[in-house]
Amino acid sequence: MKMLLLVVIFVMDIVRYGRMQITLNAPIVRNYPCKGIENIDAIFEIGISREEQNKYYLNVYEKFSAQSRMEIKFDSDVKVTLFEEPYIGQPSNRVNDTVARVGTFASNFEIFVRFLQPMSDLSLLVRGPQTGTVPYPTSININSVEYCTEPAPGFVDSFLGGYKGSALAALSVPPGSCGRRKVVHTELIVNGQPTKPGDWPWHGAIYRLEQSSVKYICGGTLISKTFVLTAAHCTTINGGPVVPEIMSIIFGKYKLIGGDIAIQEREIYRNIVHKEYNPRRLDNDIALLQLKSEVIYDDYVQPACLWHVNNYKKIPAGSMKGTVVGWGFNHNNTLASTLHQVVLPKISESSCVKSNIDFFGKILNDRKFCAGYRNGTSACNGDSGGAYQVFVPDITADSSVDAPGSWHVHGIVSLALSRPNEAICDNTQYSIFTDVSAFVQWIYDYVKTDN
């Protein structure tokens, strides 16, 4: 087994590496992502900013003939950029698309490189889509030959510096009682149909005083006894924060209008809108509502878990699916009378953009993601601010119907295309969600130890 080789070489040191003599500009860590394979290594820079710590360079020392093909599978979402020569501490030129091209498969976490001309020794910049998530290769196949029969994931985890004294990429999903239902139903729930009371005890209904009446405006997710996560566009008017005195939120609510089993209503003490929220593009569409008084955890009111970097490695392989709940518009174009749920697959950025390049090509960025179908099933008006929540089993990859586990907030319902000439969502288009992964530290800066 290869031991981790820590290479700390300071500015302007010179080192001979294989056929090359390189001038290094930064301290680096070198390791092998596949046990027993020395012609593939990984380089990680030490001391870079927290925002850059989700990347490393994967170097492949091979000769590729024209029409060669390399396929790489990763254990989580990944973005890959090709460079002309191995990265050993200094930049290289990007590969011209007449020499080689990189693409994605329909399945998640897998890319391919097709070589149009002969090429030797290249580097791939491997980057997670959000801060704190480091994708590791699980398979490297070159011309139908597997080079990575024994992958060694986690080879840079111990070097992630974190931020303000707390590391974002821990080695395990933290334990706790968040995201777990207290009321268990045996009835099957059909996709898009009403839920049962107690199914989503962290989902709340946000209300706002408008003129002389109180109106339901959005959903929100309880993440502690006094904090609620929602979308910034739900808590602002013309881009400015709404005064907290005219807002309230009700938990344990099942019927939008009428009595419920055990509701808890709370007034809002503080409306915290992300300082970089852009109301025109809905960038950084995230807000926290701090309650005036604590909720009481019971069968119908519980906190959800926040997304954790290693959740990717615990959920079953294949397309990620999340559940969105709310009182959003139904097939009759009216708000649902009871809480509904819909299960939506997460869509790759490339597939999303290709579905409507004029819209998604301009609006998507690395702090958003796409999910949904194009068959009439989607999040819609009234669902805004609610969670895109993913079930994470306690036992890795447990896909059984009764698997124990917890629900984690991976996204926030943010944006959907409207129908032509109507202010109603177009349910034949994908929906856009704020990626909570990119804001975990921002959330913790406020919530801290409030449990």
Question: Which key phrases capture this entry?
Answer:
single chain, 451 residues, mainly beta, 6-stranded antiparallel β-barrel, 6-stranded antiparallel barrel, 3 helices, 27 strands, 5% helix, disordered N terminus
What do these coordinates show?
- The chain is mainly β and 451 residues long.
- Helices cover 5% and strands 35% of the residues.
- It has three helices and 27 strands.
- The strands form six sheets. Strands 13-14-15-20-19-18 form a six-stranded antiparallel beta barrel.
- A hairpin with a 4-residue loop joins strand 14 and strand 15.
- The longest helix has 8 residues.
- The N terminus is likely disordered.
List the helices and strands and how they pair.
Blueprint: E1 13-17, E2 20-24, E3 28-31, E4 40-45, E5 55-64, E6 69-74, E7 79-83, E8 100-104, E9 110-115, E10 119-127, E11 137-142, E12 145-146, E13 203-210, E14 213-222, E15 227-230, E16 236-237, E17 240-241, E18 247-251, E19 264-273, E20 287-291, E21 305-306, E22 321-326, E23 340-347, H1 349-355, H2 357-363, E24 368-371, E25 387-393, E26 405-416, E27 431-435, H3 440-447
Parallel strand pairs: 21-26
Antiparallel strand pairs: 1-2, 3-4, 4-5, 5-10, 6-9, 6-11, 7-10, 8-9, 11-12, 13-14, 13-18, 14-15, 15-20, 16-17, 18-19, 19-20, 22-23, 22-25, 23-24, 24-27, 25-26, 26-27
Helix pairs in contact: 1-2
